[in-house]
Design goal:
The protein has helices spanning about 5-10, 10-25, 30-40, 60-80, 110-125, 155-165, 180-185, 210-220, 235-250, 280-285, 300-320, 330-350, and strands at about 50-55, 90, 130-135, 140, 145-150, 155, 170-175, 195, 260. It is α/β, with parallel strands linked by helices. It has 2 domains: about 5-40 and about 295-350, no CATH class; about 50-285, Rossmann fold. The chain starts with a helix and ends with a helix.
Length: about 350
């Protein structure tokens, strides 16, 4: 149970309206509208799956850091975001030989274990489910030869993209926190996918800090900028990217990494994604938690209302980014309808025992 959840729900409509006013006017293409309208719906009963893959480390010290990040990410997702042991797959280094890893480890990051994990997961997922993939480790190579460094023969971005193609009816999030991650990540771009790369070029090959601040953004929902008790991929990206630059500044060093994001399927990543721009609209409505996580009420009606409320919030965000596509009166009429319906459902939810 999240403290203050009731107050948060009562303020949802007002919050959505304030976000609308503060965001300003954005332009958006019809193609992107279609992309956003189809994917990342709040479908009651849809499942969230997470796959954490941690590659080989260049040294024992770096390996210890990767292990810590991997286990911390696993624990945060399980504790705060509605994932279970059955919906998180953790593939790490050599599979935990010689380490105290407990039962969280599902296998190694060898190619055969990665392929087996994705094949098994594709057999479990249903249309409308969401699969979030987190890559922790080192990257190398360029263009079609860009690789994620794993135990044994490395895997290229093109090869990894083929594994993701098994999930053509699911929403896909990939957060690649490795060094030299950009060209590997670009190979994964596609419609209905939100792709985050910790670096923006092959030259950014030093060990990134992005994974550290990704976990910090999720822990305690520190990255929740709009205070709706959910954390979107865009919020994670913004929090972690800003924190990384702050870390370099505090160290008195020039940044050797700059995170980028692509969510419109064109393979062109943005440094500063924003809803209604080239990238950012899909990432804003792609949440890492299940639709009803944290709800105080457990009846079927309450769960259904919560999902509908969150879907209305999603519609408010989408409409905000599409403002320039409407005549002024039409836009505000549509927004008013959404906000009134959101307030009505919120009131009904609060009345339930």
């Amino acid at each position: 149970m999240i403290p203050g959840m009731r107050n948060t729900l009562m303020l949802r409509a007002a919050l959505a309206f304030s976000l609308l006013i503060s965001a300003g006017v954005y332009a958006q293409s019809p193609a992107q509208n279609n992309n956003e309208d189809v994917f990342f719906r709040n479908i009651p009963g849809a499942e969230r799956y997470a796959v954490i893959i941690t590659g080989a480390a260049a040294s024992e010290e770096i390996g210890d850091r990767f292990w810590q990040w991997s286990l911390s990410l696993h624990d945060v997702l399980a504790r705060d975001y509605g994932y279970s042991e059955d919906t998180i797959t953790l593939l790490i280094d050599d599979g935990g030989a010689g380490r105290m890893s407990g039962s969280r480890i599902d296998g190694s990051s060898r190619r055969e274990d990665i392929e087996s994990a994705f094949t098994a997961l594709s057999g479990r997922t249903r249309p409308g489910d969401q699969v979030a993939v987190f890559l922790i480790g080192h990257g190398s190579g360029a263009e079609l030869d860009a690789k994620f460094n794993i135990v044994g023969p490395d895997i290229t971005g093109v090869e990894f993209a083929a594994l993701l193609d098994q999930f053509n009816q699911q929403d896909i999030i990939v957060i690649n926190t490795t060094s030299a991650s950009y060209e590997f990540s670009a190979a994964l771009s596609g419609r209905g996918r939100v792709i985050v790369s910790a670096t923006r070029s092959q030259a950014e090959r030093y060990d990134p800090m992005f994974a550290r601040y990704l976990i910090e953004a999720l822990d305690g929902r520190a990255g929740d900028r709009d205070k709706n008790n959910r954390v979107s991929v865009l919020e994670v990206f913004t929090y972690a990217g800003t924190s990384v630059l702050g870390w370099y500044r505090d160290q008195g060093r020039l940044p050797t990494e700059r995170a980028v994001l692509d969510d419109n399927g064109d393979g062109i990543f943005s440094i500063d994604p924003a809803p209604g721009g080239g990238d950012g609209g899909l990432a804003e409505i792609a949440y890492l938690d299940a639709p009803s996580v944290g709800a105080q009420k457990t009846s079927s009606e309450a769960r259904q209302l919560m999902a509908e409320m969150q879907d209305l919030e999603r519609s408010v965000f989408l409409l905000r980014g599409q403002k320039t596509n409407y005549l002024e009166d039409d836009y505000w009429n549509r927004m008013e309808t959404l906000l009134i319906e959101l307030a009505r459902k919120t009131g009904r939810y609060n009345e339930l025992p």
